[in-house]
């Protein structure tokens, strides 16, 4: 079949095969699916439309026989004049002395090269005798390694195609080929390497985009289905009455969106399958309350719960608020990296004996010395800050708890259906009533005095402010230095009637805790901080968020920071101090002032940054596609997702038309079965 080694192609020996291997090409199939990464498109345009320094293609009649001059060793220059649309254009060609004989006066010639619009001169890189056959020509450009040139590589592709083109089998079901008018796989492969025109190329690409997405979606959805059916799940028989009374003890009524999400999660917990669910909700939408109820559900079913958060500050804060909410209902403990020695041993022993019902902590929670007797539910807050690896650790410890990931970074629909195609998703898309929209302003640095006066007025009214110091990405140290400087500056400015606090990553856990407590108790009115306060921190009395050098942050991060205010009943403000140089920076500031809707913001962020940057490259685990692009082709992605779910719902993989897809997936299915 087409899985045969490349050496079976005429003209490919061991030596060439070795080079191909460095490009991860081993089989004929690898070879044929090694598509160009871009195409040079030559289009004939009138002279006056040509752009200086661009690569252009022109055709004309040679006026004189070319003249050839040699210089240096073996170096030559060939020059001649061509009449193009009645204009004399000078052509220059280097080191192609042999062309002198071919190019003759009064004959047509097509030239491609760099255009000098001032001198009406073309430096030729490519020429063809005669007129252009078509109005345009497309040249594929491959990403090659070693001795290959794109041209040489294309030759090999050409040989391979001659050899094996008939062996390229269709894999997409005829139903969908017809429905979307996609070219056959055989034709599409040929076109990708030797496109005749743009339209043909577009359809070939369309075909592969759909193929990649459909297979990907089928894999993801199969995986999710397996997960659902897996018997190693966890059934939690919680006490609904106790839950109801717990919810009644809250000082507020749950929003409809909270209730809806809660119901979905509790259903999963009750069910014997293992929950794998993402809870999305904008900052301040009340995810913590929902998390608390779910943790309590585990406790009433006789099991333990764990809440993992990304920072110690956040762990501390959740610990306090949960203790307050739960009262006598459950034993709650805080376990972070700074709990050490004897204290730690005592705590881990209690966890092991289930003397503790709920543990809150950073990833210290899942480290080697922590064992749970009966872990029913794990909640991971701000999950994108946890590496994929850390998520697996619990499972590898032989624990099969229900898992709920929570995130306040609204994940764009486009990414959610790919990155999390294997998860169920609940969304809290509603803020508790009575909240006022945060007013966001974008100002220049020279207005700082006015901003400080504004802060003073608010503080006089009993409110509080955050000031985020400039971020220096390359250096932790400079970051902190900046914060310290700003802190001193503000202290001097306000002399002693306003107390300033300082928060950054180098403080010890105790120091951080101390600062946060003082801020929460309004003993500190203005908190200068690096971005460590970004996630989850909740001080409802703070109404002003000032962000220095805001252009250095991504939209999601700005939104997170902004989410630290607007948590109470009072009007809140977010002030972005920024002087962005580039268009993207300006665009970001504009978007921030225009919307407070996290979902809309995240879509825009994705457009500006691209998917790789969205979660940070390392953690993203984003799938890679050969042709498709998740952002630009997301409509195709949605189509493929819907088709995949129809295929699986109706068990169509069993049918004749789906044999090829099925056999491709089978390998994947086997792998999954080993995993579970
Ligand atoms: P998130 O974790 O989603 O950012 P929190 O759970 O911290 O949001 O909630 C933000 C604030 O809103 C908290 O002070 C919380 O007590 C309060 N809150 C939560 N749910 C409601 C509700 N249904 N009605 C009013 N206030 C609520
Ligand atoms: Mg369950």
CATH architecture of the largest domain: 3-Layer(aba) Sandwich
Q: From the 3D structure, determine the CATH topology of the largest domain.
A: Rossmann fold
* CA gyration radius, whole angstroms: 32 Å
Tell me the strand order in the biggest sheet: 11-12-10-13-14-9-15
The biggest sheet amounts to:
7 strands, parallel
Helix content: 40-55%
Q: What is the level 1 CATH name of the largest domain?
A: Alpha Beta
Tally of separate domains: 4
Distance between the termini: 32 Å
Number of helices: 23
Proportion of strand residues: 15-25%
What form results from the Cα inertia axes?
Answer: globular
Query: What class, by secondary structure content?
Result: alpha/beta
Bound molecules: adenosine-5'-diphosphate, magnesium ion
| Average pLDDT for all residues | 86
Q: Any overview of this molecule?
A:
Residues 447-607 form the Helicase C-terminal domain. It catalyses: ATP + H2O = ADP + phosphate + H(+); Couples ATP hydrolysis with the unwinding of duplex DNA by translocating in the 3'-5' direction. Pfam families: DEAD, Helicase_C, RecG_dom3_C, RecG_wedge. The chain has 676 residues and is α/β, with parallel strands linked by helices. The structure holds adenosine-5'-diphosphate (ADP) and magnesium ion (MG).
Quick description:
The protein has 676 residues and is α/β, with parallel strands linked by helices. Helices cover 41% and strands 19% of the residues. The two termini are 32 Å apart.
List the helices and strands and how they pair.
Elements: H1 14-21, H2 28-32, E1 38-43, E2 55-62, E3 67-71, E4 75-84, E5 87-94, H3 99-102, E6 108-116, E7 121-129, E8 136-141, H4 150-164, H5 174-180, H6 185-193, H7 198-229, H8 240-248, H9 256-270, E9 276-281, H10 287-300, E10 304-308, H11 312-326, E11 332-335, H12 341-352, E12 358-361, E13 375-381, H13 388-396, E14 402-407, H14 413-419, E15 424-428, E16 439-443, H15 448-460, E17 464-468, H16 476-494, E18 500-503, H17 509-520, E19 526-529, E20 542-547, H18 555-562, E21 573-577, H19 583-594, H20 598-609, H21 617-620, H22 634-649, H23 659-675
Parallel strand pairs: 5-7, 9-14, 9-15, 10-12, 10-13, 11-12, 13-14, 16-21, 17-19, 17-20, 18-19, 20-21
Antiparallel strand pairs: 1-8, 2-4, 2-6, 3-4, 4-5, 6-7
Bound molecules: adenosine-5'-diphosphate (ADP) and magnesium ion.
